[in-house]
Specification:
The chain is an all-beta fold. It has one domain. It is built from no helices and 9 strands. The strands form 3 sheets. The protein has a 4-stranded antiparallel β-sheet with strand order 6-7-1-9, with no helix packed on it. The N terminus is likely disordered.
Length: about 140
């Protein structure tokens, strides 16, 4: 199963969730990525990442994995005067909440970037929002 690929996207995420006390709370705090988990696939051979194993032909042997983001694929920026999550798309990956949620309304805005990375050259734009899924990290998913 191939990981989701993200092109340069800026998300203004305001997805409130209902908690046990009945109060609505935003899933993103608007400051940083605490409460979120990143997963990144294999970088391109042209990426400069010392310390990560490569094959003889220069390809990375493993995905960067959970919580490894040395290229800052996921970051928080200011866009249109508001805090936003920036996803560069340099490496295919996912951004997901660290804990389960239910009773939510998903509301977001997005902007497409102009830059394309080598793994994106075959498609015009490649991005997705997957919600209400299951944590497959302990099931050998990669």
């Amino acid at each position: 199963m191939s990981p989701l690929r993200f092109v340069p996207v800026v998300l203004l995420l305001t997805a409130p969730a209902v908690f046990a006390d009945g109060a609505w709370r935003a899933l993103w705090n608007g400051r940083d990525l605490s409460g979120w988990t990143t997963w990144l696939g294999r970088p391109e051979p042209t990426d400069d990442l010392p310390g990560f194993a490569r094959s003889k032909d220069g390809r990375f042997l493993e995905p960067l994995g959970v919580g490894q983001d040395p290229l800052r694929v996921f970051s928080v920026v200011t866009a249109d005067g508001r805090p936003a999550i920036r996803i560069s798309g340099q490496v295919p990956g996912t951004l997901s909440t660290s804990r389960p949620h239910g009773g939510y309304h998903l509301r977001l805005q997005f902007k497409w970037g102009d830059k394309k990375w080598p793994h994106q050259l075959k498609s015009l734009r490649d991005s997705a929002i997957f919600f209400h899924g299951y944590d497959l990290s302990g099931m050998g998913a990669s």
